[in-house]
Design a protein that fits this description.
This protein is of the alpha+beta class. The chain has one domain: 2,3-Dihydroxybiphenyl 1,2-Dioxygenase, domain 1. The chain has a ten-stranded mixed sheet. A hairpin with a 2-residue loop joins strand 5 and strand 6. The longest helix is centred in the middle third of the chain and has 13 residues. The protein is globular. The N and C termini lie far apart (40 Å).
């Protein structure tokens, strides 16, 4: 059976300087307004990293280029997929994200990725109920793909941010 197409809905960068990355991506991609969410806390009771409970904080900025969400992540504290990337690779393109239709689809997509050799590196639930899982198949040249389920309440926030670009 051929899987359904799963076009990316987001491109994300990890940076140590949100101002510089926002400015550059605004100039290159035409993003007009960035919405910042400082101090997002990923807690050990809802998040894991490399199979262990995760406890970290990141500053996040969101914008859009057309229908593509742009996400910037600046690690603040704690050990995470983002701080590891910044330490090992420096600032740069980190992942693309594909969206699950519902929680059951999210679970199926995570299972399918693992069956295809893309193991789960980090996963959890963010404030607002966003479920996320980062899968990786470095041996195949796929560093990170994020699989996410976005509840309707958060979708409305994303739609508002997108409308601010017009």
């Amino acid at each position: 059976m051929t899987p359904l197409p799963r076009p990316p809905v987001q491109i994300a960068w990890v940076t140590s300087d949100l101002d510089a990355t926002e400015s550059t991506l605004s100039a290159l991609l035409g993003a007009r307004k960035w919405v910042r969410m400082p101090g997002v806390h990923f807690t050990p009771d809802t998040c894991s990293y490399r199979g262990e409970p995760a406890d970290f904080v990141a500053d996040i900025a969101l914008s859009y280029a057309g229908d593509m969400q742009l996400e910037l992540i600046a690690p603040v504290s704690g050990r995470s997929i983002y701080s590891e990337f910044l330490r090992d690779s420096g600032p740069g393109l980190h992942h693309i994200c594909v969206e699950a239709a519902d929680p059951a689809d999210f679970a199926a997509m995570i299972e399918d990725a693992a069956a295809q050799g893309a193991g789960v590196v980090a996963q959890g639930v963010m404030p607002g109920g966003i479920r996320f899982g980062y899968v990786s198949a470095v041996q195949a040249g796929v560093p990170f793909v994020e699989i996410a389920y976005i509840p309707a309440e958060i979708r409305a926030v994303f739609d508002y941010i997108k409308e601010q670009q017009r």
